[in-house]
């Protein structure tokens, strides 16, 4: 079965033209925007030209189908508000090229998946979340973006082509190719990463309520400063999380809003998010216990009220041993001594799909470890090598 690397790269660059930012190879293609829908329709036309039967489901996932039982390969084509040209798109186009080459050579049946809203304009891995049954379509329809638009309203733009949800048992397994989105392989010089597991995530929104007051007349000892409480909270979380963390454990305090955000007013309210990621279920839960303890301590010591929202949870996902072994064998054959096993610190659709069928992932390096940015990039030689390894593995399972 002969792949066509030039065709693969041409399709990848053509997909990158949809929503091109004008800065490097960056793209602006958030889920359900006009340019996202145009890109999906173009991908559907390429799938049809390759001999695949296209299928849009109600949430906007696009499938290119080859028969009633096939191996599924894919990822997503939506982007962050300021995204890179490879994130997700690489896996979809790789799946398309492998499926197309298999059809041309009379090889095994391979289908392609392009999941919707992986990047979380409305939810988290929304398209694969709904398809795998983690959430219902009715629940997803209630999700809103930062402008207050509901998913149910915007997905109506694709209603004319939407059909039923496909059954999971149509597929024997799922493979996803992706850029690493971190510096590990770029530093080590490896070309291929075989993903061992995908980390779990916990995220919570937090509100600190103090006392808004005059910045010039309120003595320091009498202040109930919401921002100082946030700062104290951040320091304590860093210390306590560090005590239980592994080198792969990460956490981020972000999306902070201070009110009234004026230079002469003591902040009365602070809203912010805290997210932590780890591959170990028990550690994720223990870090939540630490969070609650720190919130109580800061509330008491700073004389403020701290309210914790619902903790959102996505559990760690182990990759399928048989599919991992196929990727390892292919990597050793095609990139001997230039591959490694590694966990994924980023979420991917494979985490959801692994709950309904065997799934595995392959990484290629990210130059400088950069992703979710306009200057995200990977050497074309590494892109092609990843395609070749993925193809070899797909033919062996």
Write the layout of secondary structure elements.
Elements: H1 5-16, H2 34-50, E1 53-56, E2 62-65, E3 70-76, H3 89-105, E4 110-115, H4 126-131, H5 137-141, H6 151-154, E5 171-179, H7 184-188, E6 192-198, E7 200-209, E8 213-214, H8 226-244, E9 250-259, E10 265-266, E11 269-278, H9 281-302, E12 305-308, E13 312-314, E14 317-318, H10 321-334, E15 339-344, H11 349-353, E16 359-364, H12 380-396
Parallel strand pairs: 3-4, 3-5, 5-16, 6-15
Antiparallel strand pairs: 1-2, 2-4, 6-14, 6-16, 7-11, 7-12, 7-13, 8-10, 9-11
Helix pairs in contact: 1-3, 8-9, 10-12
Describe this structure in words.
It is a single chain. The protein has helices spanning 5-16, 34-50, 89-105, 126-131, 137-141, 151-154, 184-188, 226-244, 281-302, 321-334, 349-353, 380-396; strands at 53-56, 62-65, 70-76, 110-115, 171-179, 192-198, 200-209, 213-214, 250-259, 265-266, 269-278, 305-308, 312-314, 317-318, 339-344, 359-364. The chain has 12 helices and 16 strands. β1 (53-56) and β2 form a beta hairpin. It starts with a helix and ends with a helix. By secondary structure, it is an alpha+beta fold. The mean pLDDT is 96. Strands 1, 2, 3, 4, 5, 6, 14, 15 and 16 form a 9-stranded mixed beta sheet that branches. Strands 7, 9, 11, 12 and 13 form a 5-stranded antiparallel beta sheet that branches.
């Amino acid at each position: 079965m002969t792949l066509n690397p030039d065709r693969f790269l041409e399709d990848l660059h053509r997909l990158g033209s949809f929503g091109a930012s004008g800065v490097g190879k960056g793209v602006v293609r958030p889920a359900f925007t006009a340019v996202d829908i145009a890109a999906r329709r173009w991908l559907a036309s390429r799938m049809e030209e390759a001999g695949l039967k296209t299928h849009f489901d109600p949430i906007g996932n696009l499938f290119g189908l080859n028969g009633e039982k096939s191996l599924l390969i894919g990822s997503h084509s939506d982007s962050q508000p300021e995204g890179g040209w490879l994130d997700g798109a690489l896996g979809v186009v790789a799946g398309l090229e492998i499926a197309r080459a298999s059809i041309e050579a009379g090889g095994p049946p391979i289908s392609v998946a392009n999941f919707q809203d992986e990047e979380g304009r409305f939810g988290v891995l929304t398209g694969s979340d709904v398809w795998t049954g983690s959430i219902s379509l009715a629940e997803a329809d209630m999700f809103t973006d930062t402008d207050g638009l509901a998913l149910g309203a915007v997905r109506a733009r694709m209603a004319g082509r939407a059909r039923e949800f496909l059954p999971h048992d149509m597929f024997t397994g799922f493979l996803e190719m992706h850029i690493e989105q971190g510096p590990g392989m770029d530093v080590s010089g490896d070309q291929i990463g075989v993903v061992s597991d995908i980390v779990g995530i916990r995220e919570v929104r937090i509100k600190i309520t103090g006392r808004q007051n005059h910045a010039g007349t309120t003595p320091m000892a009498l202040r109930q400063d919401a921002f100082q409480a946030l700062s104290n909270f951040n320091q304590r979380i860093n210390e306590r999380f560090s005590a239980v963390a592994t080198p792969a454990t990460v956490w981020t305090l972000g999306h902070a809003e201070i009110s009234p955000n004026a230079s002469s007013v003591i902040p009365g309210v602070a809203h912010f998010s805290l997210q932590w990621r780890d591959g170990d279920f028990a550690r994720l839960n223990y870090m939540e216990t630490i969070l609650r303890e720190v919130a109580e301590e800061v509330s008491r010591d700073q004389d403020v009220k701290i309210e914790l929202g619902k903790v959102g949870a996505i559990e760690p996902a182990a990759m399928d041993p048989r599919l991992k072994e196929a990727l390892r064998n292919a990597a050793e054959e095609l990139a001997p001594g230039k591959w490694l096993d590694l966990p994924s610190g980023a979420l991917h659709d494979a985490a959801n799909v692994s709950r309904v069928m065997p799934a595995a992932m392959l990484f290629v390096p990210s130059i400088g470890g950069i992703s979710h940015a306009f200057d995200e990039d990977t050497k074309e030689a590494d892109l092609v090598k990843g395609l070749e390894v993925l193809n070899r593995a797909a033919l062996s399972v």
